[in-house]
Amino acid sequence: MAAAIEALATDGEPTCLVWTVDLESEPTVRRSRTELKQRYESLLAHASGLAALRNLVVLLRHADRIPERKMHAAAAALATRLHADLERARGRYVDVAVVDISSCTDTRRLLDRVEEVAGTAAGPVGNVALTWHEIRDRSIHAAAAASQF
Fold first, then answer.
1. What contacts 20, CB < 8 A, 6 or more positions away?
2. If you placed Cys at 32, which of 26, 45, 122, 133 could pair as Cys (CB 3.0 to 4.6 Å)?
3. How far apart are alpha carbons 52 and 118 in whole angstroms?
4. How confident is the model at residue 124 (pLDDT cuts 50, 70, 90)?
5. How many whole angstroms from its chain centre is CA 33?
6. For residue 66, is pLDDT > 70?
7. Which residue ranges make up each domain of the chain?
8. Residue 10 pLDDT exceeds 80
């Protein structure tokens, strides 16, 4: 099975899905959380359709007036649910990282962080919710490991 997955990956089947969620127009924390939850089914449907998927990165942007800490629980819940449902449906491991990039001002560095994840096998992340500040100076995998301690 692993050889088949690797063959799919090298034959052009995507192994990483990057999904953006723009909540900047949502006026309140409550509306932002509700809208994030409503995006779940679409995210799951797209991710489930990728046979060689190993990494799912959700980049979340919300309004400046909403503190990162207010969105963290909703982001963590989304990561946990996606990870569990993808693993259950597919019978294999998919890392899910939800990253709040609302305070990101360095898109080149953000792209570097996403490319680092895209080039790795599933396993180091599991499911995690992070902020831009946590990944600005280190990889998503390193930030995920640090968040567990």
1. 58, 59, 60, 61
2. 26
3. 12
4. low
5. 16
6. yes
7. 2-147
8. no
Q: pLDDT for 71-106, tens place per residue?
A: 999 999 999 999 999 988 887 789 999 999 999 999
Structure tokens, 123: 């396993």
Residue 106: the pLDDT is 96
Pairing state between β 127-131 and 16-23: unpaired
The owner of tokens 């989304």 is 78
The answer, yes or no, to whether residue 47 has pLDDT greater than 50, is yes
d(CA 49, CA 23): 25
Torsion of CA 20, 100, 15, 84, to 10 degrees: -110
Q: What is the pTM (predicted TM-score) of this model?
A: 0.88
Query: Is it the case that residue 137 has pLDDT exceeding 90?
Result: yes
Gyration radius of the chain over CA positions? 15
61 forms beta bridges with 22
Q: Read off the tokens for 131.
A: 């902020």
- In 3-state terms, what secondary structure has residue 7? helix
> Which residues make beta-bridge pairs with 21?
60
Closest CA to 79 of 24, 127, 33: 127
Contact 21, 36 (CB under 8 A): yes
